[in-house]
């Protein structure tokens, strides 16, 4: 029983750590694009498989100048 609790606790901590790293990466990339102009962000939920987040740098005419997939 103790082993199960430890495994669950380790999995929880690992998930929190990896989520924090992912959020920091997203934030850093968003700031880089935002310094260049307007940014549009879209996402596709993954459920049990990997999802995707995309960011587009948009110019004043509404054209996409740069795209980034995370």
Helix content: 40-55%
Number of domains: 1
Biggest pleated-sheet summary: 3 strands, antiparallel
Give me the secondary-structure category: alpha+beta
Largest sheet: spatial strand order:
1-2-3
Mean pLDDT: 93
Distance between the termini: 38 Å
Gross morphology is: elongated
Number of helices: 1
Number of strands: 3
CA-based gyration radius: 17 Å
What is the element string, with H for helices and E for strands? Answer: HEEE
Share of β-strand residues: 25-35%
Low-confidence sequence ranges? none
What can be said about this structure in brief?
With 70 residues, the protein is of the alpha+beta class. It has one helix and three strands.
Keywords:
70 residues, 1 helix
Please describe the topology of this protein.
Blueprint: H1 2-34, E1 38-44, E2 52-58, E3 64-69
Antiparallel strand pairs: 1-2, 2-3
Describe this structure in words.
The chain has one domain (2-69). The protein has one helix and three strands. The protein has one helix spanning 2-34; strands at residues 38-44, 52-58, 64-69. Strands 1-2-3 form a three-stranded antiparallel beta sheet, covered by helices on one side. It is elongated, with a radius of gyration of 17 Å. The chain starts with a helix and ends with a strand.
């Amino acid at each position: 029983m103790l082993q199960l609790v430890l495994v669950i606790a380790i999995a929880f901590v690992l998930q929190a750590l990896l989520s924090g790293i992912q959020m920091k990466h997203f934030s850093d990339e968003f700031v880089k694009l935002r310094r260049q102009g307007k940014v549009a962000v879209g996402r596709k939920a993954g459920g049990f498989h990997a999802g995707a987040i995309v960011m587009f740098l948009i110019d004043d005419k509404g054209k996409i100048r740069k795209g980034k997939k995370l």
